Every structure is written in C-alpha cells, then in structure tokens.
Amino acid sequence: MEITSAVGAVLGAFGLSGAAGLNAWLPLLAAGLADRFGWIDLGHSYSWLSSIPALIVIGVLFVVDLIGDKIPALDSVLHGIGTLVAPASGAVLFAAESSLSSHLSPTAAAILGALTAGSVHVGRTVARPVVTGTTAGLGNPVVSTAEDTVSLILTVLAFALPVLAFLALLILLIVPGIAIVKWRGRVRRR
User: Nearest Cα to 12, choosing from 136, 155, 183, 170?
Assistant: First the structure.
C-alpha cells in the first residue's frame, strides 16, 4: 500500500466528515452514488451505502433536510436531530473512505469522523440562533444554502483533491474560532 494513497484517503475522510457536519446526508448520498457508479470503491464493509434501498432512504432524508433547513422553526428541530446524525454520518464516511488504503483502525476512524462532523455541526448550530435573531429568520435560508454549498464543495474536493478538502476544513474550523475569540475580547472591553 502506497503512503500517498493512505494519506490521501485520510485527508479525504476528514473532508467528507467535515461536509457531514454541514449536511449529514449530502456526502453520504454522494459516496453511495460514487460507489454505485464505480467512481470509488468503498469496499465490502460499506457497500450497503450504494444499495438501492439505502440510496432511496438517504436521498429522501437529504431532500427533507435540504428543504426543512430553510424553514426557520423547522431548522432548529433538524439541527437538534443533526446533533446525533452528523457525527454518525461523519463516523461512517471517515471509516468508509479510509478503510481501503489506510492502516487506521475502524474504531479510530469512526471516532475521528464523529469528532470532525460533530465539531462542524456544533459550530453551525451555535451560529444559527445568531442569524435567526439578527435577521428575524430571513437569513436562515441564505445561511442554509451556503452550508449546503460548502458541504457539496468539501465532498467533491474530498474525492478529487483530498489535500484541498482538508485545508478547506481547517479554514472552516479555525476562522470562526478566531472570530469568536475577537468578538468576546471586544465584549469584555466594553
């Protein structure tokens, strides 16, 4: 096994699990479809993702979440559910992506995926009430669309350019953290 493919798989796995933190269903659906069409190989352990029943269920859940997250009251309910779903999705995606070309144990991969997706999801869950409060809910569909777009970009990058997916994930995790620290500093000085 070549080290560059193993590193690429792990970096791609970080990108996919980060995408799952923004939209849990989109990268699962993309991975299932990519495996179904032979663009990637998830291996035997994760081939269930590309089965017709799984693709139908994931596809329906993706559409429900895609539409529901644009509705101000419903988005809070979906974010609550996402607190469990996003880390689970991230765990499956990380383990599936890294299983074939990495020596990372499935348990470690699942933990890394769950932590990555969970961290991203917590960040979006914390930010959404601020958007709702400052825009009376009118900004929610815009922010939701941006989250879905970033999730799609991370997913595509994870498959095509895993190093860029990983770098984009780092930016996604670090920039909001810096902004929060600066904002708290300003609030304390007042």
Answer: 155
